[in-house]
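TASK: fixed-backbone design
INPUT:
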């Protein structure tokens, strides 16, 4: 859920006139599979552009009891960058305290390990392909209904209601969770990229009678994305709350909020000077 990754669409060259806007509004809506494939194809093209961004991410998790009283709260601040479409986070502080030298060393070692791993395009592709399959599985379990198109600042936005697919039989836990979700989604038509997703579980999902895992009715998830000036889409908000349990996780009542901002755009040029030296 932390990276719950769902993507979605039309950037016009200029604000359309009334006749053009009316024609766009009345055009047939694309089907959900078409939107999904468009989103996945564009996401692969953006992977190289994402690598020029580094953003500041703040994660806050609050655990409560049944009455809503706070039992524990934690905040982690990270720097996030991308390698071949894979997000890598470097922790900067926890609960307002900077990391100790030993913790910094440990973080640097982990970040370098992940960076080298996903610098291998084949390994990164396997990871992104897995994410794409999970998104496709989620979309199978859901239906987009009551679609409508609106033109916002010259951009075609598709608004839908999300309901369970009545004829679908879930094959795994991800699909079982997706199968009980209801809510709304706004999609940029051209890219297929989700702008805003707001969903809540209409029923509970239990694994092993609730002993292995459970997600209770009322679990809420909200995700918002935005487009940068160069056309790259980045997440700026992910939040949720509810009652969930996994194995020995004994603090099931929670609220989390992840905000991303202060993104820096880098331009780099490199050239080899002299003979390259192989290092371990």
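OUTPUT:
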């Amino acid at each position: 859920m932390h990276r719950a990754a769902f993507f979605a669409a039309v950037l016009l060259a200029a604000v359309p006139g009334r006749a053009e806007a009316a024609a766009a509004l009345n055009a047939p809506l694309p089907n959900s599979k078409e939107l999904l494939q468009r989103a996945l194809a564009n996401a692969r093209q953006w992977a190289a552009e994402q690598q020029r961004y580094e953003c500041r991410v703040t994660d806050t998790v609050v655990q409560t009891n049944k009455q809503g009283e706070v039992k524990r709260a934690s905040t982690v601040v990270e720097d996030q960058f991308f390698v071949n479409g894979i997000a890598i986070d470097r922790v900067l502080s926890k609960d307002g305290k900077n990391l100790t030298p030993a913790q910094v060393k440990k973080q640097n070692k982990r970040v370098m390990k992940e960076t080298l791993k996903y610098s291998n395009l084949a390994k990164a592709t396997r990871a992104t392909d897995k994410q794409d399959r999970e998104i496709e599985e989620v979309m199978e379990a859901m239906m987009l209904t009551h679609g409508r198109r609106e033109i916002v600042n010259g951009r075609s936005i598709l608004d839908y209601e999300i309901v369970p697919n009545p004829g679908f039989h879930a094959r795994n836990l991800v699909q079982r969770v997706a199968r009980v979700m209801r809510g709304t989604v706004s999609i940029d038509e051209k890219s297929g990229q989700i702008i805003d997703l707001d969903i809540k579980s209409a029923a509970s999902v239990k694994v092993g009678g609730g002993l292995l895992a459970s997600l209770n009715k009322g679990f809420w998830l909200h995700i918002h994305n935005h487009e940068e000036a160069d056309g790259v889409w980045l997440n700026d908000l992910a939040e949720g709350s509810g009652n969930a349990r996994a194995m020995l996780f004994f603090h099931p009542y929670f609220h989390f909020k992840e905000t991303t901002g202060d993104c820096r755009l880098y331009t780099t040029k490199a050239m080899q000077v002299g003979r390259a030296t192989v290092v371990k």
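COMMENT: The chain has a mean pLDDT of 82.
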